[in-house]
Amino acid sequence: MTPIKVLIVDDSALVREVISELLSEDKAIQVVGTAVDPFDARDKIKQLKPDVLTLDVEMPRMDGITFLRNLMRLNPMPVVMLSSLTHEGADVTLQALEIGAVDYIPKPRTDDNAAVFHAFQNDLISKIKAAASSATKIKFHQRNSIRPTAKQTTGFKFAADRLQIVAIGASTGGTEAIADLLSKLPANMPPIIITQHIPASFSSRFAKRLNNITPLTVKEASDREPILAGHVYVAPGNRHLTAIKQGAKLVCKLLDTEEVNRHKPSVEVMFNSLNKVTPWRVTAILLTGMGEDGSLAMKPLADAGSLTIAQDEATSLVWGMPGAAVRYQSAKEIISLPKMPQRLLAALSDNSQGKAS
Q1: What range(s) does the Response regulatory domain occupy (predicted)?
Q2: Does residue 171 carry a catalytic annotation?
Q3: Per the structure, how many domains does the chain have?
């Protein structure tokens, strides 16, 4: 196979050297060059025609966000952002994903040990490969404008006495897929819980961004918090989010336990908790994401009668998690992202939760 050609854009000579060495250890990847700033990158993109870019956010002469916005308008291509884990870095990284970056990875620190660098290397290589595979499916458009939000006057009404809950899991590409889905849902929804693979310093910012583009109330989940209709609860980046029964109601239970499927929060942990919430009716959704987290845990929910939905391959940035759910026969339905809001509303207002036509 032809190796994936990568161009590294970073103003730090040390970072360029380290990233080059780490990527070059994988024979499926070829570092074709490095660039010290966006102007240098612009020239080398034309010359070297890379498949994937790694892009630093903070650079001289032009910041990474401005460069990314120009790149997506003039020469769209897969980009993996190198970001810091600060709150400021979280805001900029989420903005980059809105503009069209495929993924991001936190920069390691110079004092990190060998094990941390090894984990960083594995994650970076996986993200580069996933980004390359998404090249033909990326639909770049103006994503930094406010999305049209759903209106309360949709005619949708769910029966609260049916005790319904919606659970959504996602990873790579998920921040934008979740935003697209929630922005088209009305305020009078059953409660929604979300596990998105995201660092601890990003999850609260992510929840706030979602809250601004949907009539639903979106917040980062807190331990023992009641799960209410019209609300969306996002798993904190360093805790597993589960739903547990408390009398006739559900509450959030956060778990500070080991990673599951290399993730914390894990979709598998969230889905598994929902097997114990009968008579609540569960709708489980797996959106775009790398790996298989949640795909096997969705099967018992489907077998118990829950509606289980996987995002289709065409609209998934990375068809890892939803694709695995299809392979394991965990997903009863495979639906494109644009059609998902309509299908979800139909299912929640329909006693049978029958298949879409």
Answers
A1: 5-122
A2: yes
A3: 2
Model pLDDT, residue 159: 62
Torsional sign, CA 349, 212, 244, 356: positive
**From 180, 197, 263, 306, the catalytic residue:** 197
- What residues does 79 pair with on adjacent strands? 53
Rounded-to-integer distance, Cα 15 and Cα 56, Å: 10
Same domain, 126 and 183: no
pLDDT tens for residues 287-342? Answer: 999 999 999 999 999 999 999 999 999 999 999 999 999 999 999 999 999 999 99
pTM above 0.85, yes or no: yes
Q: What burial class does residue 36 get, using C-beta atoms within 10 Å of its C-beta: 0-12 exposed, 13-18 middle, 19+ buried?
A: middle
> Which residue among 83, 171, 183, 330 is the active-site one?
171
pLDDT of 96 over the 90 cut: yes
Mean pLDDT of the chain: 90
Query: What CATH code is carried by the domain that includes residue 89?
Result: 3.40.50.2300
Q: Pick the catalytic residue from 10, 56, 103, 293.
A: 293
Active site residue 293: yes
CA distance 349 to 209: 28
Specify the CATH number for the domain of residue 170: 3.40.50.180
Residues 14 and 118 in one domain: yes
284's tokens: 């489980």
Whether residues 80 and 211 fall in one domain: no
How far is Cα 129 from Cα 126, in angstroms, rounded to an integer?
A: 5
